[in-house]
Amino acid sequence: MSEMRRVTAINNGTVIDHIPAGAALGVLRMLGIGGERASPISLVMNVPSSKYGRKDIIKVEDRELTQPELDRLALIAPHASVAIIRSYAVAEKREVSLGAEMVNIARCTFSNCITTNPREPQDHRLKVVAADPLELRCRYCGRPQDMAELVDNLL
Amino acid sequence: MDGDLITMNDLSNEEILSLLDDAERLLPVAHGAEYLPLLQGRLLANMFFEPSTRTRMSFETAMKRLGGDVVNLGDVNTSSAVKGETLYDTMRMVDGYCDMAALRHPRQGAAQYAADACSIPIMNGGDGAGHHPTQTLLDLFTIRQAHGRLEGLKVALVGDLRYGRTVHSLSHALARFDCELLFISPAQLAMPDEIVDDLTGQGAKISMTEDLIGAIPDVDVVYMTRIQKERFPDEDEYAKVAGIYRLCAADLAGVKGDMIIMHPLPRVEEIHPDVDSTRHARYFEQAFNGVVTRMALMCRLLGVSVPGGEV
User: Fold this and answer.
1) Do A144 and B108 make contact, defined as CB atoms within 8 angstroms?
2) In CATH, what is the architecture of A101-153?
3) C or N: which end of chain A has fewer Cβ atoms within 10 Å?
4) Do B80 and B93 contact (CB within 8 A), yes or no?
5) How many domains does chain B have?
6) Same fold, A3-95 and A101-153
7) Residues B185 and B119 in one domain
8) ipTM of the predicted structure?
9) Could you confirm whether B107 is annotated as catalytic?
10) What residues in A contact B109, CB-CB < 8 Å?
11) Using CA of residue B196, residue B197, residue B200, residue B202, what is the dihedral sign?
């Protein structure tokens, strides 16, 4: 059975494939997709993957995720592949792209950074130092980011 | 350099050397022997959100020696920061008042944050445990003044290498000039791993020891630092390392004749006053050099040529 077929095919919406096993709930959180939505969300976790061993897949019905929304996923699912579905067919394929900086995605993890004052209004900017594995440094304080802690600092 | 000085990475080695050359040309002006109002009509904002004696005074002296003027943030306890004003709002206001600003702030990253908020040049005068590049410039000036060069010297950095932003910035700069670095500290105050990794990645020659007296006979520079009581979580931990390094004149018998002893000041007990009168002591000249290097920097950031030099 195709792993994509464990859940029903969707009419319109977005399929996010190749999410690292166990990260799907974090992806939903990062995208701000919660149970209060009217349209269905399907989620499979820990299915076999030829590329990664195990992976998660999410199908979000009746919502086409935008590129800026997808780029937020670089933090936890940098190799995710995304298909926009219209009338049961793949209308577009998108990749998560990692720019030179992640802007307003997460707050610096260093407790004495100037950006920890929630009233400071400028953008939160984390520079991408290395892509794989992902290494980030705060533009302001320059500290390397603790990736596990950073997921708790999502904006 | 792109309009601000936030870390030493904003300067190439060539820019550093050319700033030191400008500083050298400005020595008679800094001494008051010549009046050269290169920055007449220019206004510096001294934004010190944390206590400072030398850095704040030397920025002010430098600007006034060049014919410019200074406005001060004043006591941080009576300024609007205490009322909860953000750094962003304060700096946007200063951006309108002045032609450039020197900033010291307890939060790391504050200088870059201010630079992003302002169009005027920002000079980082120390941000938390982050960077202090103008201190590094004056340190490099002092070393070059004594040894005639920066390249290939052996420099011992002593004391609090963990929390001292001065030694962090200086180590990076010295590594760029192929200096050999010797880190002397108790284990609790050792240079942070991430900095050692960065320096090693740059190809720097580094060694470490806890023994000051045994290590100094073959070094060119001994850079002492104060062990900062305020950084310790409790009094007992501080007491264990407080007096660990005390250099006195009797310890200098076997050192190189041209070895210099530096200290960013204030000192507590790490250099005995009997060292002051030896030919090795350079810490007061070093403090004076803060004026001349900041003069050169302010001219550079405001696009003003120092006569005899180039921009």
Assistant:
1) no
2) Roll (2.30)
3) N
4) no
5) 2
6) no
7) no
8) 0.88
9) no
10) 108, 113-115, 138-142
11) negative
Interface of B with A (CB under 8 A): 7, 84, 86-88, 105-110, 112-113, 116-117, 127-131, 194
CB A18 within 8 A of CB A52: yes
Mean pLDDT of B13-21: 97
Q: Please, which residues have CB within 8 angstroms of residue B215's CB and are 6 or more apart in sequence?
A: B156, B182, B184, B209
Average pLDDT, rounded, for chain A = 89
Determine, yes or no, domain membership for B261: yes
Whether B281 and B138 map to the same domain: the answer is: yes
**Residue B52 DSSP label:** -
Residue B41 sits in the same domain as residue B99: yes
Is some CB atom of chain B closer than 8 A to the CB atom of A152?
A: no
What is d(CA B39, CA B65) in angstroms, rounded to the nearest whole number? 9
User: Quick check: A7 contacting B, CB < 8 Å?
Assistant: no
How sure is the predictor about A3, in pLDDT bands with cuts at 50, 70 and 90?
low
B169 and B210 co-located in one domain: yes
The answer to whether the Cβ–Cβ distance between B7 and A140 falls below 8 Å is: no
Is pLDDT above 50 for B311?
A: no
How confident is residue A133, by pLDDT bands cut at 50, 70 and 90?
confident
> What is the Cα gyration radius of chain A?
17
Residue span of the structural domain in which B52 resides: 8-133+289-301
Mutate to test the interface with B, among A108, A113, A114 (most CBs of B within 10 A): A114
Q: Judge if pTM exceeds 0.90.
A: no
pLDDT at residue B112 greater than cutoff 90: yes
Residue B87 and residue B89: Cα distance in Å, rounded? 6
Q: What is the pLDDT of residues A13-63, one digit of tens each?
A: 999 999 999 999 989 888 888 777 778 899 999 999 888 899 999 999 999
- Based on the domain organization, do B32 and B125 belong to the same domain? yes
- Other CB atoms within 10 Å distance of the CB of residue B231: 14
CA-nearest residue to A140 within chain B is B109
Rounded-to-integer distance, Cα B289 and Cα B58, Å: 9
Model pLDDT, residue B204: 93
- Set B55, B61, B142, B293: catalytic member: B55
Q: Among B42, B54, B131, B300, which one carries the catalytic annotation?
A: B54
Name the residue with tokens 């464990």.
Answer: A6
Statement to judge: residues B181 and B140 lie in one domain: yes
Give the CATH number for residue B120: 3.40.50.1370
B132 given a catalytic annotation: yes
pLDDT in tens, B77-108: 767 677 789 999 999 999 999 999 999 999 99
For the segment(s) A3-95, the CATH number from 3.30.70.140, 3.40.50.2030, 3.40.50.2300, 1.10.150.120 is: 3.30.70.140
Q: How is chain A split into domains, by residue range?
A: 3-95, 101-153
Q: Out of A112, A119, A120, whose CB is closest to B108?
A: A112
Please compute Rg for chain B using Cα positions: 19
Q: Which residues in chain A have Cβ-Cβ distances shorter than 8 Å to B127?
A: 114, 141
